[in-house]
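Researcher: Good morning. I'm working through a list of sequences from a screen, and I'd like to move beyond sequence-only analysis. For each chain I'm collecting a predicted structure so we can compare shapes side by side. This is the next one on the list. No need for commentary yet; just the structure.
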Amino acid sequence: MLDIKFIADNSEWVKKSLGRKGFPAEKVDELLETFYEMNKLKTSSQALAEEKNKLSNSIKSASAEDRPAIIAQSKAVGEQFKAEQEKLSAIQAKFDDMMLRMPNYPSEESPDGPDDSANVVRRKVGEIPAFDFTPHDHIELMEINDWSEMERIAKVSGSRTYAIKNDLAQLELAIHMMVMDKLRSHGFTLVTVPAISKEKPLYNQGYLPFARDEIYYMPADDVYLSGTAELILNSLRADEILTEAELPILYAGFSPCFRREAGAAGKDTRGLVRVHQFFKTEQFVICKNDLAESEKWHKKLLQISEEVLQDLELPYQVLEVCTGDMGAPKYRQYDLEAWVPSQNCYRETHSCSNITDWQARRTNLRYRANDGKMQYCHTLNNTGIATPRALVPFMEVHQQKDGTIKIPVKLQPYLGGRKFIGKNAK
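Model: Good morning. Structure tokens for this chain:
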């Protein structure tokens, strides 16, 4: 959520800034018209309330002759006040909805563009593997090693579900454990969080009202299934007033996650890339309201994710995401993409975002600065690791001629010291 006073005082700059995300200037004008109309109704409604109170107070001291007229006048003012309140309630609801739909301002340094075609590669790290044999894709590798029950689980749970087993199941958990240890070494508090949420946190995070069709809803309990631990962590301290000394707060959240993938029809229908349920370790930071401070943490979160991919010995590239692709809550965003040999391209494994105070305004998360002033916090998030998606580049990059998978040195302690996994591993 944005600051309406700032919008009113800087409307032309706001139009230009949000226009970089494709947000129409006329919607800013409509918001301000609604805001000014709402304020007029608040003023007139307050005046009517004061008039009614004066009339009510004067009834007792009025003469018997004057009292009926005062009562009638008070009743008329009361009816007028009620009508004004109904108008105010309607326009307040309209204003609140419009504010919830306002995207965050993008960074001046973010590249402009309408969609992901305008994302900019900032750097590539690691060498793309050159195989002296015909490499397999991740689905073939699972079949060779008897690591999955993809066809059987589809009969039980439907499309875009997965069931992996034995070495691959252990590998999935081992990668999460390695990432959790790394995050704790960087000062993060590890939290396992639920995968269910009330509706308000989805508005707080920014999932709603933008992406309702991507979210699983359970009407019998009036709860939603979470698509990321960020959803829960962002509202964990909602309505609290922190002190500056408490900041920054670093959370590493682990949870099962659920996404309908409603907008992904026909995309990656085979294998482990786009599934409805997955596991995710998420980085989440709450820091003070200072752009230099939150941009420092943005770079730190990116660095940690690069360390993860380097520990996994995966070649990757860093993308700076353009204004048209970064989504409503984002001020600035980087994506990390690991190399997938079977597709001859890089595919996303991490998404690293600075949200500034956009989420904190929605959660009413504030802190008292050292100078005594109240400020809204800045929040940031980044993937620690998400599986099974990360298993796709991992298996394909580290595959051997006999179908086994080589385990990177940093990961070996989490798999009992094994250097290879697979049916033919020794």
